[in-house]
Design a protein that fits this description.
The structure holds 2 protein chains of 2 kinds.
Chain A (H helix, E strand, L loop, with lengths): L1 H12 L2 E10 L10 E4 L6 E2 L5 E7 L4 E5 L6 E4 L8 E3 L9 E4 L2 E4 L7 E5 L22 E5 L8 E5 L12 E4 L2 E2 L12 E7 L2 H4 L10 E6 L5 E16 L8 H19 L9 H7 L5 H5 L3 E13 L3 E13 L6 E16 L2 E15 L13 H7 L29 H7 L1 E20 L2 E20 L4 H5 L5 E25 L2 E24 L16 E2 L3 E20 L3 E12 L8 E11 L5 H4 L4 E15 L11 E8 L2 E8 L10 E14 L4 E13 L2 E5 L8 E5 L2 E17 L3 E18 L5 E4 L15 E4 L6 E4 L2 E4 L3 H7 L11 E3 L14 E5 L4 E11 L2 E11 L2 E4 L1 H5 L32 H5 L6 E3 L2 E13 L9 E15 L24 E2 L6 E11 L1
Parallel strand pairs in A: 1-7, 13-16, 47-51
Antiparallel strand pairs in A: 1-4, 2-3, 2-5, 5-6, 8-9, 10-15, 11-12, 13-14, 15-16, 17-18, 17-52, 18-19, 19-20, 20-21, 21-22, 22-23, 23-24, 24-25, 25-26, 25-27, 27-28, 28-29, 29-30, 30-33, 31-32, 33-34, 34-37, 35-36, 37-38, 38-45, 39-40, 40-41, 41-44, 42-43, 45-46, 46-49, 47-48, 49-50, 50-52
Helix pairs in contact in A: 3-4, 6-7
Chain B lengths: L1 H14 L1 H5 L17 H13 L4 H5 L1 H6 L14 H7 L8 H23 L7 H26 L22 H18 L16 H16 L8 H15 L24 E5 L11 H5 L17 H5 L5 H7 E6 L5 E9 L19 E5 H15 L6 H11 L16 H16 L5 H7 L3 H9 L14 H6 L6
Antiparallel strand pairs in B: 1-4, 2-3
The chains are: A mainly beta, B mainly alpha.
Chain lengths: 1019, 484
């Protein structure tokens, strides 16, 4: 208001005249709203209205008007005493002048020297996004997004250019509106995201120093734009159904199968055990219960978003409210999220700006119990596969069944429907993420910016199993309740000086320097009790539990202090140089090693601006980029370098007493993992940039890996944490953007990307190999077996085990083979005796598959016809393998659990099958990891198809726009993988085993096919 | 503004405020700067040494998998893991998992004991209490080394806790050097630990002076039977046994089954001298009942171990109290009826009302030594000092009396004339009295009957009279000095 009065009074003093006009889009002919109009030599400007018109009072000093709009070429028109100035704005060719966010600054796309992928909200405008990482999958080359758990709110892992680390995190650093380390994407409302930039190579990420090695993802939320106020309202509803279910035996088949197991066992061991089912019983069983269907359902989802955005030249705001509710396809599972965002920008004076981005979020999820334990606590999906189909969900009295009668021929698992319905497994998250900055121009070209932010998360976890559940009665806990509360708090201060100087037409410098400090704190509090006389109160009153268990709490903190700088130098508008340096001091590093230094340099050459390229008349854009740098990974955990005395317990006088003991060999030299990487890239454009693309070759070497070096246990410890070993990644990223047709009524655009990464273990601190990877301890007789091998010269994720070579057909064949141990019978699977010593031992294990794919790709086709837009997004992974642990239970290995229907085709005599062992064979399970449970994980999938219709709205209505769309997700998948979904990693939920237990499927949550109908209204 | 920034930056660099900012504060764990400061720290540090003992892979299961499967009184089903089968038939290789558990956990305990022994003496506190705590730690360290040399022979001898600068590849030390260290630790414990009746109720389960005497007696007896024997070993063993017997701190309980009454673990005058303490949650429970109980009985166990068929037949008819209590082939149905099982299962630990089917948690203690063991050790020592000494029957007959073997069932030179007869009788007595209590392998080796007993009892051929366990392969791979 004050500014307005001031400007008014100044206008009155000078000689003023008014200019008016209309702004039109040169391409579509439509009137443009929100175009910014400024005059030289005066402070105030204006923006166009919804009908594309403007009026602006200009002072006598002013000689030119500037018309600018994002994505359009800015025009400058002399005023020359005119009173009407109409302008037609040209959309910019391609995106070269787009401003791209880089760490601590921005750059025109044409000036980039590093490898950066950029995704704009506009790219995914017509597809509903339920999680921010869905925007990334298949839309940025060099980035693999893996849904490790398909449950609502389930985990995602993101790998940028391969796997660098063995024991530390491989997840990129997430920077939300300038706040680094805001990693929890589940509680960021995806509708609020304006753009995502993915910094891939060292020259781009070195500015993030000790956190840059795994790549950096910059997320920018939507800001208000100067112009009139817009109100938009979006609703969508969807329905999800499970797909690719296992085809299991029905009751009749399973009873017949159990009888045949008994008959075979009788024959082999000369016994006369009665079959569990009589033929009369089998005759009366019918199909029985389909337990998969019993625990699955068609589940709804919905999303509602209301946003108000707008502002003036001086103040801009965006207020949005969102509610998202996704019910899970497993009964009694869901994820709900509510967010409120308020972003505000204010130009206090031409030199002084401030801004605020803030989000409050609440999420509530109830997770289906899916885990990798197997056995008696294997969870809902696991039990649904193996529970006896002859058992009904409820007995004749209406109570849940728990055992699998007539005799316990299936491990006493517990009725999965009862388990799913009766247990509470709930996480509530309350999060506030707030950033504010002030920016002041000290002298022309030199700006100081200070940013302060806080990320505060409060998470509660409630777990309750009622006293009547099988799991409770078996361990006689009579109900178990757990309640945990975690407080995560982080603050950051980032202070930068940015210097922009155009020395002359040939020399342009942009330099930024700054320092920052960040603190991360985590606190936990937990209590639990057993023995509940009532189930009505759940976890809400632990004091009624007859057996209180030991309460727990913890508090930890890590700090990071940093100095950083970057110089961009542009020579003759075509030679681009970048040098960056960051010094990070981290509390996590050992006392003698607190500071790490991370330099990088890059050079880019805009070949298109050279006459010898221009004269070829082939390219419309051509730029060569190259860079090298060193980045780090400081995710080595807190307190790893110092002596840790941790608590344990003993019993004196029949009462628990607390003990405290040294828990590690301290390592004062412990430091960050270090990745040196080189990148060579080419950006190109043809046909006046109708076809643009980027290709990058890179090579990375990660050294000083956080490494658990095995030490003799005479030390009291089995390992010591040191920095040793190295891993290499080499690969190629390619993306192409093609506007095939761009007609007024019809358009066709194609975007595609392709990435291939080759990972190799280079050094394991002197040893040649280490066994790694987790499997369920309930499958194998001696406990969980390592599933893979880390071997010098081979990639991480190399499955390691016994090679399957068909089925022993006759005793004669066995005798001739000379195999004596273990004793096998015809019908057992053949595992290859690699060292030909007549015995199958650990020495016969070989690499039997690879969890890392040969390449991944995605392409999006967008067709526009009149007011219709059709988008199809296809995405795929090629050349990876999956370890399907479920097959031990449901194919062969265990002879008691329910089986795949295909098991009816098992070996019954010579020549009957060379793939499916006799039903009573348990050899696979007693052998270990075998190649017949490793399956091809290659898939191609129609991930999203969306059809939208932009409804024609008559002018002058309150309603300005309406978009109706229908979307399908996970519509078609072509794969040879037999499990629910080839995009799986059951062990990925545990971040520690995430790196080494890749592509392993055990009791996973099935993926859903989703149909969504939505409506977007603009007011 | 720019100036201010530079000042701030410089201040950070010069004043060292950055250094403070980057110092790690371990809020919820203790470190060298704030531990071993108070008497309370000393107490919990000692508890931490004890805490290692309760792991399944230590005294929960592994210790008796090694010691009892290595005797003729315990076996496993044929579908058991090869770790167990090969320990039972003396074909265990250096990749045996249980052997690795045994090695690793003993050294883990020793390192914690070393930490206490190194740091507790520096704490300002009541000196007798401090010495009692150090005595407890030295007892446990001695017990660890005693188990190690009995199992593996020459092993690395580490007497200081591992730190950032410790040598990690110390090489083996000869048994002859380790024995004096064990004896000195136990003598310190004997002199500084409290008498059983002085241990405060809240600390029941800690090491008593008598426990040190009892283990010291066992150490002398064991060395006495080896080539490295000291001339005074049997006399010293007798002295230690007599210290326990004459202390009045311990006695045989009237009923055999009362020893295993877990609802009354600490009677005024106990029979148990030193036990690893287990209890129901939130304490660590003992898996042993589940391992030893039939899968077909109620409540059901996992039937993982049982007695070989020959074992029940060794009991003389009059020895019904111990036989009935220790083993059973009766499976109880849910309705309370009994059927006869094909195997005899050990039931002596099962008097635990808190234990439930398939549960890993029972409050059964693991008894390292008890008064009956000391009485039988006294008989053994007396016999080897002078085979003609009639007093050698005193201990054994006291144990037999409590088992109901009185009158003609008492032993004397008439029914047990020669030294061989005495050894046979002593080993039988130790088997009937102490079966499944972790003594058998060591008893048979010490008394020279391992090969014959295993052949008779289980049909197992043992390659030598005093076989050692192989040092784990993974450890040899890390340190070639450990090669078997």
């Amino acid at each position: 208001m004050l500014a307005f009065i001031l400007s008014l009074s100044s206008a009155l003093r000078a000689q003023v005249h008014t200019v008016a006009g209309t702004i039109t889009d040169s391409k579509t002919g439509e009137k443009m709203q929100g175009v910014s109009i400024t005059a030289d030599h005066q402070k105030h400007g204006t923006v166009t209205n919804a009908d594309g018109t403007y009026t602006l009072k200009v002072s006598a000093n002013s000689q030119k008007l500037n018309f600018s709009f994002v994505g359009y070429t800015t025009q400058t028109v002399p005023i020359d005493s005119k009173t009407v100035i109409d302008v037609t704005l040209e959309p910019q060719n391609g995106t070269l002048n787009d401003v791209i966010l880089i760490g601590y600054g921005t750059q025109r796309r044409k000036d980039l020297t590093g490898s950066i992928a950029s995704i704009s909200a506009k790219d995914v405008d017509e597809t509903p996004i339920t999680r921010p990482d869905q925007m990334i999958q298949g839309r940025a080359s060099g980035v693999q997004v893996i849904q490790t758990n398909s449950a609502p709110g389930g985990n995602i892992s993101i790998r940028i250019r391969g796997t660098n680390s063995i024991n530390s995190s491989n997840e990129p650093l997430f920077v939300v509106d300038g706040f680094p380390g805001a990693g929890d994407l589940n509680t960021i409302n995806p509708s609020d995201i304006e753009s995502i930039e993915i910094l891939k190579d060292a020259s781009a990420t070195a500015i993030y120093g000790s956190r840059g090695a795994n790549g950096v993802v910059l997320i920018t939320t939507k800001k208000g734009k100067a112009g009139t106020q817009t109100v938009s309202f979006e609703n969508y509803y969807g329905t999800q159904t499970a797909q690719h279910l296992y085809k299991m035996m029905n009751a009749t088949q399973f009873a017949t199968y159990l009888d045949s197991v008994t008959a075979q066992n009788n024959r082999l061991s000369n016994t006369t055990v009665a079959p569990p089912y009589t033929s009369a019983q089998i005759g009366s069983l019918g199909a029985g219960t389909n337990w998969e269907k019993a625990v699955l359902r068609t589940a709804p989802m919905e999303n509602h978003q209301l946003s108000l955005a707008g502002g003036t030249q001086d103040s801009r705001y965006n207020l949005s409210v969102n509610y998202f509710d996704q019910q899970g396809i497993v009964i009694n599972s869901w994820f709900k999220r509510g967010t409120i965002r308020f972003n505000f920008d204010k130009t206090i004076s031409p030199k002084f700006r401030m801004g605020l981005t803030s989000q409050l979020a609440f999420s509530n999820e109830n997770d289906a119990l899916v885990n990798t334990n197997g056995g008696a606590s294997g969870g809902v999906m696991y039990d649904a596969l193996r529970f006896n189909p002859a058992t009904p969900v409820k007995d004749s009295t209406g109570n849940y069944t728990y055992t699998t009668g007539p005799a316990p021929y299936v491990d006493l698992a517990g009725n999965p429907v009862a388990y799913a319905r009766s247990t509470t497994n709930r996480t509530n998250n309350y999060r506030s993420l707030i950033n504010a900055f002030l920016e002041y121009e000290l002298i022309k070209g030199l700006k100081f910016k200070t940013l302060a932010g806080a990320d505060i998360e409060y998470t509660t976890y409630d777990f309750f199993t009622p006293s009547y559940l099988y799991a409770s009665t078996q361990n006689t806990s009579s109900g178990n309740a757990v309640k945990n509360a975690n407080t995560d708090y982080s603050w950051v201060t980032e202070n930068t000086l940015t210097f922009d100087k155009k020395i002359d037409g040939n020399n342009v410098i942009n330099a930024v320097g700054g320092f920052s400090a960040q603190v991360f704190q985590q606190g936990t509090l937990g209590g639990s009790a057993n023995g509940f006389f009532t189930n009505d109160l759940g976890t809400n009153n632990l004091s009624i539990g007859s057996t209180p268990l030991v309460p727990a709490s913890s508090q930890q903190k890590n700090t990071l202090a940093s100095f950083f700088g970057r110089i961009n130098y542009r020579l003759f508008e075509k030679y681009l140089f970048t040098a960056t340096m960051r010094a990070d001091g981290s509390s996590r590093f050992g006392t003698g090693n607190k500071w790490g230094y991370f330099p990088s340099g890059a050079f880019a050459w805009r070949l298109i601006d050279e006459n010898f390229i221009k004269s070829l008349n082939v390219f419309s854009d051509l730029k060569l980029r190259t860079g090298y740098g060193v980045t780090g990974n400081q995710e080595i955990g807190d307190y790893q370098s110092i002596p840790q005395y941790t608590t344990n317990s003993y019993t004196l006088d029949n009462t628990r007493v607390v003990g405290v003991s040294i828990n590690n060999i301290p390592n004062p030299k412990l430091s960050w993992e270090q990745t040196a990487s080189a990148d060579l890239g080419l950006d190109f454009g043809f046909l006046n940039n109708r076809l643009t693309g980027t290709i990058d070759l890179y090579s990375k070497k990660t050294t000083k890996l956080l490494f658990n070096e095995y030490v003799p246990t005479t030390s009291g410890f089995s390992s010591e944490l040191i920095n040793a070993g190295s891993v290499g990644n080499k690969g190629i990223d390619l993306s192409l953007d093609f506007t095939a047709i761009d007609h007024k009524t019809f358009g066709w655009k194609i975007f595609g990307d392709f990435s291939s990464n080759k990972n190799k273990v280079l050094n394991l601190n002197g040893t040649n190999n280490l066994l790694a990877g987790n499997s369920s301890s309930s499958i194998f007789t001696g406990g969980g077996q390592p599933t893979s091998i880390l071997e010098v010269g081979h990639p991480i994720g190399s499955f390691y085990g016994y090679k399957f070579a068909g089925i022993w057909q006759t005793q004669d064949q066995i005798t001739k083979s000379g195999q004596t141990s273990p004793v096998v019978h015809p019908g057992d699977p053949i595992y290859v005796d690699e060292n030909k010593d007549g015995a199958i031992t650990g020495a016969d294990r070989v690499i039997i598959g690879h969890a890392l794919p040969k390449f991944i790709y995605g392409f999006t086709n967008t067709f526009r016809y009149g007011r219709f837009t059709l988008t199809a997004f296809v995405q795929g992974v090629y050349g990876d393998d999956i370890l399907n642990e479920n097959l031990y239970d449901i194919q062969n290995g265990f002879s008691t659990d329910n089986k795949l229907a295909s098991v009816v085709h098992s070996w019954t005599g010579p020549g009957t099958s060379n793939t499916q062992a006799r039903v009573s064979s348990t050899l696979r399970r007693s052998t270990g990891i075998t190649s017949d449970v490793i399956q091809d994980g290659t898939y191609i999938r129609l991930k999203t198809a969306s059809l939208s219709y932009n409804i024609k709205i008559p002018k002058n209505k309150a309603l300005k726009s309406a978009l109706l769309y229908i979307t399908g997700q996970n519509l078609l998948t072509r794969t040879h993988y037999s499990g629910f979904d080839p995009e799986v990693n059951s062990y990925g939920n545990n971040s520690n085993s995430n790196n080494l237990s890749l592509n392993t499927d055990y009791g996973s949550y099935p993926s859903a096919r989703t149909y969504i109908v939505g409506l977007k209204l603009g007011l | 503004m720019k100036k201010q920034l530079l000042i701030l930056l410089a201040a950070c660099l010069i004043t060292g405020s950055c250094k403070k900012f980057l110092t790690e504060t371990p809020y919820s764990l203790l470190s060298t700067n704030n531990f071993y400061q108070s008497p309370g720290d000393a107490e919990v540090a000692l508890n931490g040494v004890f805490a290692t003992l309760t792991a399944q892979t230590y005294y929960g299961r592994t210790s008796w998998t090694v010691s009892e499967l290595g005797g003729e009184d315990l076996t496993v089903p044929s579908n058991s893991s090869s770790d167990r089968i090969t320990l039972g038939n003396y074909t265990a290789t250096s990749s045996n998992g249980e052997v690795a558990n045994w090695w690793n956990n003993i050294y883990s305990m020793i390192n914690r004991a070393n930490d206490v022994i190194e740091h507790v003496p520096g704490i300002a506190m009541d000196i007798p209490t401090r010495n009692d705590i150090v005595g407890n730690a030295r007892f446990l360290r001695a017990l660890g080394y005693f188990e190690l040399i009995r199992s593996f022979g020459d092993v690395p001898l580490l007497l200081t806790p591992t730190t950032a600068t410790s040598p990690l590849f110390p090489g083996k030390t000869a048994i002859a050097t380790i024995y004096p260290q064990i004896i000195s630790d136990l003598q310190y414990a004997e002199a500084n630990c409290l008498n059983e009746n002085q241990i405060p109720t809240a600390n029941k389960g800690r090491v008593s002076s008598g426990a040190a005497s009892a283990i010291l007696g066992k150490v002398y007896l064991t060395r006495a039977a080896t080539p490295g024997a000291d001339a005074n070993d049997y006399t010293n063993a007798l002295t230690e046994c007599n210290k326990v017997i004459n202390s009045g701190q311990y006695a045989l309980l009237a009923n055999y089954k009362s020893i295993f009454d877990w609802t009354n673990k600490f009677p005024a005058v106990p029979e148990n001298i030193f036990s690893v303490q287990f209890a129901e949650p939130p304490s660590v429970g003992n898996i042993i009942i589940r391992m030893l109980t039939s899968a077909k009985t109620t409540p059901a166990g996992s039937a993982s171990f049982y007695a070989p068929p020959a074992f029940p037949l060794t009991y003389i008819a009059a020895d019904s109290i111990r036989k009935k209590f220790s083993i059973t082939n009766q499976d109880k149905s849910a309705s309370g009826t009994y059927t006869t099982d094909a195997n005899y299962f050990y039931s002596k630990f099962s008097s635990d009302p808190t234990w439930t089917a398939q549960s890993n948690n029972s409050e059964a203690n693991w008894i390292i030594t008890r008064y009956a063991d000391v009485l039988l050790m006294q008989s053994e020592a007396l016999h080897f000092i002078n085979p003609a000494d009639p007093n050698q029957f005193n201990g054994i007959n006291a144990v037999r009396t409590r088992a109901g073997l009185t009158g003609v069932n008492q032993l004397n030179f008439t029914n047990t004339p020669g030294p061989d007869d005495f050894i046979t009788a002593l080993l039988n007595e130790r088997s009937w009295e102490l079966c499944m209590e972790g003594h058998r392998r060591w008893d048979l080796i010490r008394l020279g009957r391992l090969q014959s007993a295993l052949l008779t009892g289980k049909g197992v051929t043992v390659p030598s009279a005093d076989p050692l366990l192989p040092i784990p392969l993974a450890q040899i791979a890390l340190d070639s000095l450990l090669a078997n």
